[in-house]
Amino acid sequence: MAALPSQDKPGGAAGRGRVPACRTGGAGGTDDPARTGAGAARRSTGPALPGLDPGRAPVGAQQPQVTIVARFGDDAPVARWLDVELEQPAFAQRVRALFDAHRHKTISTLRADGSPRISGIETQFEDGELVFGSMSKARKGADLRRDPRFAVHSATVDPIEGAEAAWPGEAKIAGRAILQAAPEDGADGERFRADIVEVVHTHLNKAASLLVVEWWTPSRGLRRIERE
């Protein structure tokens, strides 16, 4: 399967979902006056779960705003990755660094009977979106076409003994996978983009004495708790 051109180092385990390049298109959406704060919201006029990408209007460069583009299964608002970067740039930078540090991540999808499935995956941040792919006939792709809810986990490393405070932590992104247009040039595989429901960064405090959990959602922004 053809991989999306990337600055990442080449390679990758066979059978993992790489991100095929594809054509996207379409536009639509209606204004949602219910959301206030960082900017006016918009909901997709696309099909119900699952469905093809109905497209989005671009975020204005001079007036950055969080753009709500669809609704998740539990009626939670969802957002683009760019929205996280605009609203919480430092937090988004830490999360992205964890995802970019290693090529292979782990994705959780739902089987037909509702039980969870864990699969290897490769993800990329591209044009303000989190995108990922699935090999043709892969079970995770079938899961996402049937039920687009997912959670993806960054690769993790153990803290170094004696230097626990330097541990970068781990990151998770959950949301709704939107199947995009067919790959270009007959490339094998499918391409999805993420409508994001939640972004999480788990790490240690400066003294390495407490576990810190920071999480961002479109409706409530960034929150933080510390645990012993």
Question: Would you give an account of this structure?
Answer:
The protein has 228 residues and is mainly β. It has a domain at 80-227: Pnp Oxidase, Chain A (Roll). The protein has helices at 81-87, 89-100, 139-146, and strands at residues 30-32, 41-43, 68-71, 77-79, 104-110, 116-126, 129-134, 149-153, 170-179, 190-204, 211-217, 221-227. A six-stranded antiparallel β-barrel has the order 5-6-7-10-9-8. A two-stranded antiparallel ribbon has the order 1-2. It has a two-stranded antiparallel sheet with strand order 3-4. Helix 1 (81-87) crosses helix 2. The model is unreliable at 1-15, 22-64 and 66-71 (pLDDT under 50).
**CATH level 1 class label of the domain at 80-227:** Mainly Beta
Order of helices and strands: EEEEHHEEEHEEEEE
Strand order of the largest sheet: 5-6-7-10-9-8
Mean model confidence by pLDDT: 76
**CATH architecture label of the domain at 80-227:** Roll
- The shape is globular
Low-confidence segments, given as residue ranges, are 1-15, 22-64, 66-71
